[in-house]
From TrEMBL:
CDD domains: YkuD_like. GO terms for biological process: cell wall organization; peptidoglycan-protein cross-linking; regulation of cell shape. Residues 123-134 have a biased composition (Basic and acidic residues). The keyword Ribosomal protein does not apply. The lineage of its organism: Bacteria, Bacillati, Bacillota, Bacilli, Bacillales. Pathway: Cell wall biogenesis; peptidoglycan biosynthesis. InterPro entries: LD-transpeptidase, LD_TPept_cat_dom, TPR-like_helical_dom_sf, Transpep_catalytic_dom. This is L,D-transpeptidase. Residues 103-141, 300-323 are annotated as: Disordered. The chain crosses the membrane at residues 83-99.
Amino acid sequence: MQNTDLRSYVKKHPDNKMAWYLLGKEYLAEGQEAKANYCFQQAGEIYEAFERSKAPAHIWMDYQDKLVEMSAHKAKKKRRRKMWLTLLMFLLLAGLPPTDAPGAARGATDALSSALDSEDELQDVKPEVKEKNGAEASSEKQSNVFTAAAFGGENDGGGALAAAWAGSGEGVQTTAVLGMQTSDAWAIWKRGMPVKYIMQTNSKGKLTAQSYDAKQCSCEPPEVSAKIKRMALAWTAKQESAAALSSAIVSYQKQHKTWPKSVTALAQPFPDNILGETSAEMSEMFPQLLAMHQSKAQAIAKGDAGKGESQASKSPTPKKASFADTVGGKPFFTKPLEIVIDKNSHRLALVSGSTILRMYEVGLGGERTPEGSYVITDKVVNPNGRSNGEFGSRGMQLSDTNYAIHGTNEPSSIGLDESLGCVRMGRDDVEELFALAPQGTPVRIGKNLLPALTSVPESKERYSHKLVPKQSNTAKTYHWLN
């Protein structure tokens, strides 16, 4: 953005010290040191605070764009809120203590607060109302919202934090950002991920932030409440169900060239058991996920063909927002599920984009296990007619070949190359994968694809719902290359 826009903004908002600081940075980049120094003097404490920070350069540019956008915004309350969100983002990403961290130095945050607060903006805040019994109560709706982000290596969760702040709506709201560990280019999703940040908006629209990472905030953070921990655990389980259901909807449409009408259409007896397990929660989230995919298909059709009407325009608008507890109001996992198998590390991962939902140790067949791309076709319960046969309690055939992902009655072979080419899994692992990965899930087999680690929940937290009936195939005897 050109500094002419910033000059215009500073003229209208001479008390905004952050704007002075950014204008000074623009002049300094152009070699106009005298003008830059004058701007830095006007910025005062902000200059001192942010010159010590390590915020990426592109963050400044994003903020400059927001300054111009906000200057033209008619709603003063929204303008003030967005300013707060962006400034808090800088404080956290720059490694400064959050506003309410124990022992935090408050000079910079107090300066920001005084620079932004003004009487005319505060007049737009909705007042509290009294209930009939005379007790004071907030007129705003309370909510708890969650998201997750990768932390580690070059990942600092900045994108999720920005989305959380930008997406905070009106009302009393608590937004928790859960932290995923990283390994190479992968983010590792787990049950019980730690809370990294909590942002809270009160009834007057004031936003505060708390880091729960001692290294990040240079403080001794408070304990995360038991309630938030329970809700976070339930939220992660829900997102896994949504990922399985969302991928099943896509698989159904590819197979039938039409959209499913309900979860039941996805959970029929073999061979139409796209989903292996279902839950009541899936029925609640189905309308929103279906509408999401239909809308996406409609957009693609318009972009490619420029004509025709997608079925998305005919689908009913969901009555219930199933993902109101998620930042952005949409499911966390937006990319279809995929299975990746690494022959070197003997690992099988269920992934969505660059996020690993599960990582299991598996048995393979060395060079007898083929490399390439496949899809899950037959999904079979007790492929040998019993749960303790050579193929175990679950089997997932790969592209109508003689290769499959299945259980085993030789658990000691897990991690070794003892099969004739198939992928062997432990019983708990294969049953969980069977429940999560719909029919039609892509499978990629190769070398050096995954890190050598495992990531599975404890037994009580395994993904498990109601098994779809009649998923055995009594009409066929499988001869997979076990």
